[in-house]
Amino acid sequence: MSKRIFSIWLLIFITSCVKDVDFKQVDDISIAPVLESSLLFFDFPASEFEEPTGTAIVTVGDDLELDVFTDEFLRDNLIRAEFFFEITNSIDRNFRADIIMYDENDQLTYAFDISIVPNGNTEVVTTHTEVFEDALLEQLKNTVRLELVLSMFPSPTGIPLNQNSLGNIKMRSKATLFFLIDTEDN
Amino acid sequence: MNAVKKCCILCLLLSCFVNAQNKQLLYNYTDIPQSLLLNPGAEVNYKWHVGIPLLSHLHASAGASGVSAYDLFADNGIDFNEKLRRVVYNLDRKDYFTINQQLEILSGGFAFGNSYEPDKYLSFGLYQELDVHFYYPRDYAILAYEGNRDNIGREFDLGDLNGKGELISVLHVGVTKKVNKKWTYGVRGKIYSSLLNFKSTNNSGRFVTTEGTNNFYNHTFDLDLELQTSGVASLVDLENDGQNDWNQKAIKELRKRVLFGGNLGLGVDVGFTYHPKEQFTITGSIQDIGFIHHAKDVETYTLKGEYTFEGVNPLFPNNGSGQTADEYWQEITDNFEDLFELDTITKNYTSWRSPKLNGSASYKYGKKVLKECNCTANDGDYLNEVGVQLFAIGRSRRPQLAVTTFYYRRLFSFLSGKVTYTADGFSKTNVGLGLSSHFGNMNFYLMADNLFEYQNIAKAQYASVQLGFNYIFPMEKK
């Protein structure tokens, strides 16, 4: 009798198994989250750019540390980045925004600019998308500092800007980061 | 970075081997001395017993509510990432993963009291237990899976992180007292020694991205997260001359904590058996009403703070705040650093054990028919028992319940069996089988549940196995 019981147990154990599963599939894992983050912004009235001659180039600018892209997780898994800028201008002048990126040795990694044209004091919306992929993405991943310079060009009609001049220049921007998380070492 | 990946993969794998603590097969199976661990008021009928050291009770179980290994790893031609996507979205924050394992190191017991008819049974022992339980952190999983771009306005609940784990040894002594033919009750005192503990059950906070005013988005972080650990920091700090060396040292260190060497705690089990009529039985027990006080080798990590980020306004000093660019930039960096700075504090804490409630109502029938006279043996036991059992375990969010119906049958004088059908959070079709054999005084038992899934255990959301050897000296029949 005990033999029979024993063989029943044996049978259960032999037939119990893990079938039709392939744990190696975990190697195929790929997750592709997309993150978006606010980036730079500003909003200035025309009076900030006060210049009495109407012929001067006025530049304002600043730089900021931006070392997130050197992070190991981003280095390994970021496959594409997009910077999106939206500039709303109602100052009757041409502007140019220069975005200049530097690595840790203060060497330029990449630079691009956005030209902004006016339409009198009517709001003109200019958008610009900068896409970082492949080699350009690598340059982004070496970037630790970013400089933004906003230049205002002389008025074609020679009208100076003063405290009472109309209009604003406003910028909003965001970064869209495309990740691909998988088991392959990139 | 690779650590993050490995962690993700480990969690995925772990999620496939999860189990719980219900021992419906062993409960009130009084042929087996370890039934006293589930109900100190179980009606055992031995003169004495001793468990074979390290072999008297081995229990391992794992379960996942809502998902099985098969769901994720089936070799069925469906893309793994599609299966992963289904798992990520189909589970909800109430789903959980659990692992429980017990190993009895020593155990024994003897009857005492009235010398003609001993009415008390003292049982004692030392066992080791591992228990890990965590809820599915749904919002974290979805944020990691999708990112925030397609979730503007959605609040990610950071309270979804909820888990605890412990490795303990338990030294226990219990007394079972038979009051009369109807009543038996018992109580068991326990001293817990915690080898390792972690607990992260009081988390709250949120992360949300909303449309901004000055910029496209406002990102709001509101964090209040805490992880308490004991016994972990000293292991991490062990001198490390390679992985093998570290493993050996860690095991040596853990072994020291088995007998009073760890963080100590106290607990109690109580239980009873009652026969309203001869053939009817009602039992009930509560196990592990107890706590462990963690004062040695404790480390608590907290992440606390609130911050809304809307981007960086880079053109200075024109922004009118009077701040310099440096000050402004410094403020943003400081805010982020404060927010994500992990504070490590040494703070004593108390962890409550997960209390377990068992109950049963059953009916015995069918005495053995004697061949000689074609009559039933009046002095013998009933051969069959049917009944229902209820199990509940307290967990950090809400108790988990299971209902079982069972049939017990004494097959031969040396063999008995129990079949159970259980419905719980893992499965509505869990059939289990337990056998207990007595050859001479040697008792061997083996139990496993989810038998229907045994042909392909990967499909089971829960599986458990228990086995053990005891040496039992039964009471003589009067």
Structural features, described:
The complex is a heterodimer of chains A (186) and B (478). With 186 residues, chain A is α+β, with helices and mostly antiparallel strands. Chain A has one domain (32-182): Sandwich (Jelly Rolls), CATH 2.60.120. Helix content of chain A is 15%, strand content 44%. Chain A has helices spanning 2-15, 72-77, 134-141, and strands at residues 30-31, 34-45, 58-65, 78-89, 95-102, 108-116, 124-132, 145-152, 168-179, 181-182. In chain A, the strands form three sheets. A four-stranded antiparallel β-sheet of chain A has the order 2-9-4-7. A four-stranded antiparallel β-sheet of chain A has the order 3-8-5-6, covered by helices on one side. In chain A, strands 1-10 form a two-stranded antiparallel sheet. In chain A, a hairpin with a 5-residue loop joins strand 5 and strand 6. Chain B is α+β, with helices and mostly antiparallel strands and 478 residues long. Chain B has a single domain, classed as Porin (Beta Barrel). Helix content of chain B is 16%, strand content 49%. Chain B has eight helices and 23 strands. Chain B has helices spanning 2-14, 35-38, 69-73, 80-90, 138-146, 233-236, 243-256, 325-340, and strands spanning 46-51, 58-64, 96-112, 120-135, 155-157, 163-178, 183-200, 204-211, 217-230, 263-274, 280-294, 298-309, 343-345, 349-352, 356-367, 369-370, 375-376, 382-393, 400-412, 415-424, 430-439, 442-448, 462-474. Chain B has a 21-stranded antiparallel β-sheet that branches. In chain B, a hairpin with a 4-residue loop joins strand 6 (163-178) and strand 7. The longest helix of chain B has 16 residues, at 325-340. Chain B is elongated, with a radius of gyration of 27 Å. The termini of chain B are far apart. The model of chain B is unreliable at 1-19 (pLDDT under 50). Chains A and B meet through helix 1, strand 1, strand 2, strand 3 and helix 2 of A and helix 1, helix 3, helix 4, helix 5 and strand 9 of B.
